[in-house]
Design goal:
53% of the residues lie in helices and 16% in strands. It is an alpha+beta fold.
């Protein structure tokens, strides 16, 4: 009889621990969705981009660099270098779902690694930029920055997504 009671106590403890874990995850660890329009976030991010050596790219370049169709997302902004000798790049995307965001994060990581490998052997300044990239996800928004002022762009991004 005592062994049966002990088993029920252990099961209750495990269930309570699982419940507490789920509550912590959903309240503190899950990134909230942002209701801020893409155009607002785009404007704040663009204001920080030092466009010397970079220009806004078309959806064709998004397809070329990331193998993704811009039409499949709620918004895409891509600034790419004017020269193959530069590593600077800024990508802002608003995804339609969590699954789409997770997939795009993996694709961006692959793109970043390719950029880093490209500049590793011959362009130390560009290689250093690639190593100090920022990849930030805030809800349905993703920002990827390879730039000397990446921190400034990321700060503007976070403020815009938060509605500030």
């Amino acid at each position: 009889m005592k062994a049966k009671n002990l088993l029920f106590v252990i099961i209750r403890i495990l269930l309570v621990a699982a419940l507490v874990g789920a509550i912590v995850y959903f309240i503190f660890l899950q990134k909230p969705e942002s209701n801020v329009p893409f155009s607002t976030v785009k404007a704040k991010v663009e204001a920080t981009i030092k466009s010397e050596g970079m220009s806004e790219s078309t959806s064709r370049f998004f397809k070329k660099y990331y193998n993704q169709n811009a039409e499949e997302y709620d918004g895409v902004l891509l600034y790419a270098p004017n020269s193959n000798m530069d590593a600077d790049e800024v990508l802002l995307v608003k995804t339609k779902s969590t699954e789409q965001a997770e997939s795009l994060m993996e694709i961006i990581e692959t793109r970043q690694q390719t950029k880093e490998n490209t500049f590793e052997g011959y362009a130390p300044e560009q290689y250093a930029l690639c190593q100090n990239y920022i990849l930030d996800q805030q809800g349905s928004y993703i920002l990827f920055v390879v730039s000397a002022n990446a921190d400034e762009t990321d700060a503007a991004f976070k403020a815009a997504v938060a509605g500030n």
